[in-house]
Structures are given as C-alpha cells and as structure tokens.
Specification:
With about 350 residues, this protein is of the alpha/beta class. The protein contains 15 helices and eight strands. Strands 3-2-1-4-5-6-7-8 form an eight-stranded mixed sheet, sandwiched between helices. Helix 2 (about 20-35) packs across helix 3.
Length: about 350
Amino acid sequence: MDDQPSTDREIASRPAIIGAGTMGRNIAVASAVGGRPVTLFDVDEDALADAENEIRSTVGTVVNRGLGDTTDVSAVRDRVTYAIELPAAVGNAPLIIEAVTEDHEVKATVYEEIERHAASDATIATNTSSLSITELASTLDRPERFCGTHWFHPAHIVPVVEVVYGEHTADETVDAAAGFLESIGKDPVVVEQDVPGFIANRIQSAMAREAWALLEAGVASAEDIDRAVKGTFGFRLPTLGVLEKGDHSGLDVHHTVLSELLDEIDSRPEPPAVLTELVDEGRVGRKAGRGVYDWSATDRDEVTAERDQRLLDQLEVYRAASDPPETADDSESSTRDP
C-alpha cells in the first residue's frame, strides 16, 4: 500500500473508518468521491490490501460515471489512506465511523480502544443496522458524542444515510455526523428515537414479510412478485415517498385502502416457513449459488457490476427528483425538544 503525503490541515479534518469490510471500504469510496480525504483502518493487513484493490476499482467506476467532484481518478484514489495502527488512524480524526461486525462485544472492545486514542471532542458513529444505539453507547465514557450512521449497501451509491440518536446523544454529535454526510453529497435522514430497525429497515421488513407470505401462499411466482414491486410502487419511490404518495392519491382513499387491507396483511412475528426452509437447506442466495433464484451459472462480479450500474442510473434520477414539500404542521415533524 502506498503512503500519500498529506498536509497538516488535511490530516486534522480526515475522518477515520474502522473496519475494511464491505461497508467500511464502500464508505471510504463515498468519502473520497465526495471530496473528503479519509483514513481506512483494519488490524488485518491482508484485508486492508484487498480493500485497497477494490476501492481503486470502484473509484474508477464511479468517477467515470461523472459522479465525483473531479474527473481525476488518481486524485480521488489518493484521498484514501490505509492504516493498520489505530492510534495513527483516529488520533486527529474529528469523526470516527465504526464499521466492524454486528456484535455488541466486538464493538465495545473497539470503542474502548477508540476512546483511548481519539481526541476528547471527536464524534464517534456506528454503522450498525440492528443494534441499539443507546446500548452500544453505554460502554463509552462519553455517550453524548456517540450516534448511529446507518449506511445502506452499496454505501458508495445509495444516497441516504440514517443518523440516529441514542438516549444520551448530543445534538452537536448528530450535527457533526450529518454535516460530514452533506459535505460528501449524501442525504442524511435524522432518526430522533432509537427504535429497532430505525426507519428504512422497519418499512423494508414490513414489505418483505408480506412478499414472503404471498410467495408461501402461492399467490404468484417469485419473479412476478419482484416485477410487481419494481414496476409499480417501487418505480415511483425515487420521486414519491410513501407518505407523499398518500397526499397525491388523497388521504381519504389511502385511509379506505388501509381499512380494507390491514386485517388481511400477514402479521406473524416469525419469518415465513418458506424462508426458513431455504435457509435450512443452505440456499442463502448469491453467495451460495442458490436462494430464491438460481445464481449458479452467473459470475458474481459481473452480477454485482451490472447491479451497481443500474443503481448509478437510479442515483441520477434520485438527485434530479425534487424535495418533498413542507409538512402541513411543522411542529409535528419532530419529536425532540428544540
């Protein structure tokens, strides 16, 4: 791995990402493409070298689509510094994003090391998608400087990042995390209560439960269920959010439809049997060659590249879509005290 010279000012403003797995390396790409130098840390030098190779390739793909702040691919690649020593990575970082495995004990160990070496005023954020921000923060000496930043895969393409309050999170902490995200072209969505699944995963899980229930009941094939989603309300979503769509259709109509359907929609508290059976059979998706679909004859890298190109197309549509109008009563748009 090549070392890149950096100015003192650049080092002082360089965020640190802890963990060079899939999410960590893609967050590094997002920062670099968005114009912010970043340090990527991992204790595993082989993992870090693998991350560097992937980051160099991914940066080329994104920049060549014209989605960075420059067309100079080499300049964007050079914004990522790689570190195997934690003190060097976090010592001057104003923002530290933890992106290690979804394990409470592992994260707690990482936080202990971060607090030992980071500046006292550094913001610490976790990329958890399922763990409680409040519970994770309970292991820190200063939980007020801790928040969630829930990125969505692939993190260098999906525009929204949820910024999540814990019980003790200070407003300044959320402001710092959101400010960084805005500076690299992301769209931060503030989650004001630490609820399981935050916003997007709760809504996505409700949809997934019904899709699996329809498949299990034989209402339609997997292909047709997916086509129905992608070609109807899924097609509208980059332009019309769920609540915004209600206003367009008429809330009276929306109310009537919900009144008729809610009793019929699946509400079981456990995953449908058809999903459990697939998992028990080892049919867990692309990584196994089979899941709902048969992936055995496909090239994994080619499938990923095609997916990312389509998502980059959608990103352009998302960026072109206008922001939703103000809510009717701004006082009801936030549940936190001013």
